[in-house]
Design goal:
Number of helices: 5
Helix content: 25-40%
Low-confidence stretches: none
Order of helices and strands: EEHHHEEEHEHEE
Shape: globular
Number of strands: 8
Strand order of the largest sheet: 1-2-3-4-5
Radius of gyration: 15 Å
Length: about 180
């Protein structure tokens, strides 16, 4: 797979030159506010994360796409699919997630990329169900989740940080690609 094109984005595998812009995204406290304990991540942590994301592609046949703006070639962040091993109560499951730099917020990029990712899950990977897991209060992610047509499945708590989580689901056999 070489990538997925949407009207404004290219969803693709990771390149070496993605490290610096992704590290900048992960170093922004506004971006990381809703992730794990809210701590920012440096370049070493980001490099390890990208390596894990690429390994998941090799092991699972899916993973987190680098999201590139077609107009400029800039890395906006990521979207994609992963196995949410941190939350065993939802397994077996595949979760959709995204993380974009703040300069790309509010422009519909997350929704555009996530919609293309659900099409990929259904059409290319044959998945019949995808979940989302988001922290209560993250209204921007809630908006994307609603636009995707995902419905509530359960509420739970993060097993390490104990904050409330919302799990949503979508039956891809009913998804309007």
């Amino acid at each position: 797979m070489t990538g997925i094109r949407t009207p404004r984005l290219l969803l693709r595998r990771w390149h070496d030159d993605d490290l610096a812009p992704m590290a900048d995204i992960n170093a922004d406290p506004r971006v990381m506010r809703w992730i794990d304990d809210g701590s920012v991540h440096g370049p070493d942590h980001t490099a390890e994360a990208i390596e894990r994301w690429e390994e998941e592609w090799d092991e699972e046949g899916f993973g987190l796409f680098a999201v590139e703006l077609l107009a400029s070639g800039e890395l906006a962040g990521f979207t994609g699919l992963s196995v949410p091993g941190f939350l065993p109560e939802v397994l077996p499951a595949v979760a959709i997630s995204w993380r974009l730099g703040t300069q790309y917020w509010g422009q519909g990029y997350a929704s555009e990329a996530a919609h293309a990712t659900l099409e990929f899950a259904l059409q290319d990977r044959g998945l019949d169900r995808v979940i989302s897991i988001n922290r209560e209060g993250d209204d921007a992610s809630e908006n994307v989740i609603e636009k995707l047509g995902m419905v509530p499945e359960r509420e739970t708590a993060h097993p390490v940080y104990a904050y409330p989580l919302r799990v949503r689901t979508i039956d891809l056999t009913e998804f309007q690609a």
